[in-house]
Each structure stands twice: as C-alpha cells, then as structure tokens.
Design brief:
2 domains, Thrombin, subunit H, Chitinase A, domain 3
Length: 156
C-alpha cells in the first residue's frame, strides 16, 4: 500500500476541524465545528486558513487527527485599540438595513472602499447614544488563544 501523501504547500485537503477558545471553560463550546457535518475542502496557500494554522498542517497525512493551540499572535492577532472607533449616529443610521434600529451587541456592516465589487467590513456595536456609536472592528477572536482540532480526510 502506498504511503499517504503529506500535506504540503499547494495541496488540496479534505478535513474536519474544530476551533474553540483555549481556556478550559470554553474548550467544549466550539466557535466553529465541521465534525458531524460535511468536511471542509481547501487548497493550502490560498488564504482559506490563516498562515500559522496552515503551517501546523504541513507534514500531516490522511487519517491524522491532531489538536494544537495557537497563541493570540498566531491566530487572529492581538486586539488593536485603533480598531475601536467612534462614528456619528448619522453614519450608523445611514448603514442601517431598511432603517432597522441597532443596539449594543449588534454587528454593523459598512460598504468598503471597493463597494462596487461588493467589499464590506463589519464592526461590533459596543455603545450607542444620541450622537455617537462606538464600534469595535477587531476580529471577534483577536487577542484570544485558540485550540484547533483537525482530522485530515484526504490530501491531493
């Protein structure tokens, strides 16, 4: 029987993976989980996974089932205080979908600089008053250590 192909740069993968916060309290509450559902398929090196995560997959083979932790700098990076921004209530309301009111805890999507191509970005509404809104544009997992569990199903 031939030796299974190793995950290498440019390889196509079929895999199951689970992402959870690395804290003991959160480990049983995954943020994302394909186990028990359809596996994911992706090509290494195309930006579908963060580079540090791809680096952990290199050398694995079909059938391998591993878990590892990534520190905040390896996962989604540290929280950036410059990405917490105050915007006018007028701007916030201009972005509201069909005039729907926003409340703290809501995600607000804004058209990006390449709006004609459908680009957008989102921020978490932290505070709201009559004049301003405070939005956090950090990735929700920024600053968090994460635990990844991966089962490689196939490598091409």
């Amino acid at each position: 029987m031939p030796d299974p192909i190793q995950v290498s740069p440019g390889a196509f993968l079929t895999l199951h993976y689970r992402v959870a916060l690395a804290s003991e309290a959160a480990i049983d509450t995954p943020v994302f989980d394909t186990f028990g559902d359809r596996p994911a398929t992706l090509q290494m090196g195309c930006g579908q996974l963060a580079a540090p995560l791809e680096a952990k997959l290199l050398g694995l083979r079909a059938g391998d089932h591993v878990s590892f932790e990534l520190g905040p700098d390896e996962a989604y990076g540290p929280r950036n205080p410059d990405l917490v921004r105050k915007v006018s209530r007028t701007l916030l309301e201009a972005e509201a979908v069909s005039g729907a009111p926003y409340a703290p805890g809501d995600w607000v999507e804004f058209a990006g600089p390449s709006a004609e191509k459908g680009a957008s970005f989102a921020g978490l509404l932290k505070e709201l008053d009559d004049d301003f809104a405070l939005l956090d544009f950090n990735h929700p997992l920024a600053g968090q250590p994460l635990r990844f569990e991966v089962q490689i199903i196939g490598v091409l």
